Write the structure tokens for this entry.
Amino acid sequence: MIIIKGDHDLRNYYIAGNWKMHKNREEARELARELVKGLENCGHTLMIAPPFTALTEVAAIVKGTNILLGAQNVSLAEQGAHTGEISPIMLKDCGVDVVIIGHSERRILYGETDDMINKKIKLALSHDLDVVFCVGETLDQREGGEAEGVVTAQVKKGLNGIDESDLRGITLAYEPVWAIGTGKTATPEDADAIHGVIRSLLGGLYAASIGDSMVIQYGGSVKPDNVQSLMSMENIDGALVGGASLKAETFIPIAKFDS
Ligand code: 13P
């Protein structure tokens, strides 16, 4: 299937799997091997983010392949007395290419604020780690008509003080909280509308061309049977996949949705 969209020539599709707190090392190795094999010929940008404990082992498997290695979080601090935290230096040492920052589970369950997220993004970039920066509204906020306002504020605060030249290392991910792990996907039109709001905002905060050139993923119950309709929208350039990224049989068809 050929997907025709506005400025998509500028933006390669980017499909990422966030394994969250799942998989021991053996299970992680097994899945990583299946993905390397099954996605060998996939031309999309691809990333998998295993738990910290499996990073080194998965790194050895994806090294030199078309799959980037992601981490699910990074500390605010470079190193030192921060019990339980993982620094960007440690992530680099494990072979990590990209880090997910601002996921709603970090914001809601672990109290991460926009200010912390902004600091983490800057620190990650300063260590040459690319970033998938997540934003998204809760169900109450959506029902209260606040979705655009909430997402706008999250993007502005998260990118505060970040230069245009550093945006090259950042991918946005719009993940409406009410669609995560619930089986409720945003309609392609609703998701596209928020992606469009983010593009206009980026075009206002930076050069107009930035709005067209940044990759914006959608996340929230992406499955093999809904990925095509989401990816066919003009402003949606990829997916950040949770549950369906835990099995090769569901992640591979998502990643190869147009082949
Ligand atoms: P689900 O695909 O399980 O809804 O999770 C989405 C997500 O949170 C990815 O970061």
Remarks:
- The radius of gyration is 17 Å.
- The first strand starts at residue 14 and ends at 18.
- The chain has one domain: 8-255.
- DSSP finds eleven helices and eight strands in the chain.
